[in-house]
Design brief:
Order of helices and strands: HHH
Structural class: mainly alpha
Largest sheet: none
Number of helices: 3
Shape: flat
CATH architecture: Up-down Bundle
Helix content: 55-70%
Length: about 120
């Protein structure tokens, strides 16, 4: 039972903090039916929640994902590259080349032009 005392104490502290945050939110919330609408820093939304986005933002999202995936795989690679050696370096450059093909394609299609 002794090892679980710290875990139970931490869970109790977590429950107390969550209850305190909810109580504070309930106390400081403005009166009215604000719970039925979307939260926008206390202001009324200017457009409908299901409004359309310009198609350009989908391309920007894909380019962001290309760079994001690059970083997600580079961090663990940087940890193990010294122990694996040349094979890890070759595999990372092949991965970066594949991502670069996607970025060059997006560049060619005009994803980086904003005007």
């Amino acid at each position: 039972m002794q090892p679980y005392v710290a875990v139970l104490a931490l869970l109790g502290l977590l429950a107390a903090v969550v209850a305190a945050v909810y109580a504070l939110s309930f106390t400081l919330a403005p009166p009215g039916g604000s719970g039925t609408g979307p939260f926008l820093s206390g202001m009324r939304p200017q457009e409908h929640a299901l409004s359309r986005y310009h198609v350009r933002w989908y391309v920007v999202t894909m380019v962001f994902l290309a760079f994001d995936m690059e970083m997600i795989f580079m961090y663990p690679w940087a940890v193990v590259v010294a122990s694996i050696g040349t094979k890890a370096v070759v595999e990372m450059f092949a991965f970066l080349a594949l991502l670069m093909v996607g970025v060059i394609y997006a560049w060619r299609e005009g994803a980086f032009r904003w005007a």
